[in-house]
From TrEMBL:
Gene3D superfamilies: Archease domain. One of its GO terms (biological process) is tRNA processing. One of its GO terms (molecular function) is metal ion binding. Keywords: Calcium, Metal-binding, tRNA processing. It comes from the Bacteria. It holds the Pfam family Archease. Belongs to the archease family. Residues 3-136 form the Archease domain. This is Archease.
């Protein structure tokens, strides 16, 4: 489960999940829902595999979301389906999506950057909670 929340002039992303892998996938979906009006309109026509090494959970989350944002900004890839595995030294993920099409993918917010402000990945109520503020 994920949600967007207002934060002064920025936007907050929040997700909860029973495990870290699901939490990182939910945060990726949350980022996509901040970027486009209808993430369900993104077709899984392109598959990628990705790995990020980082032992710190908060920094790993920031790196993960930054990479998704970079793929959108530089390669115009809009990814919306995620299979993530998180370990002690980083993550491995399979990602599916398609090339951004402005006629089919109405932008919701222009996400400029993933920030470290109020960044958290914590155990919460028998599961996990993550929050990050994005610059819009």
């Amino acid at each position: 489960m994920h949600e967007l929340y207002e934060h002064t002039a920025d936007l907050g992303l929040r997700a909860t999940a029973p495990d870290l892998a699901t939490l990182f996938a939910e945060m990726a979906r949350c980022l996509v829902s901040a970027m486009v009006e209808d993430p369900t309109a993104v077709r899984p026509t392109t598959e990628m595999r990705y790995a990020i090494s980082c032992a710190d959970r908060e920094l790993l989350l920031a790196d993960w979301l930054r990479e998704l944002l970079r793929l959108f900004e530089e390669e115009h890839l809009l990814l919306a389906t995620f299979d993530v595995k998180v370990g002690d030294s980083g993550l491995m993920a399979s990602l599916w999506g398609e090339t951004y099409d402005p006629e089919r993918h109405a932008l919701a917010h222009e996400v400029k950057a993933i920030t470290y402000h109020e960044l958290k990945v914590v155990e919460h109520a028998g599961g996990w909670l993550a929050e990050v503020i994005v610059d819009i």
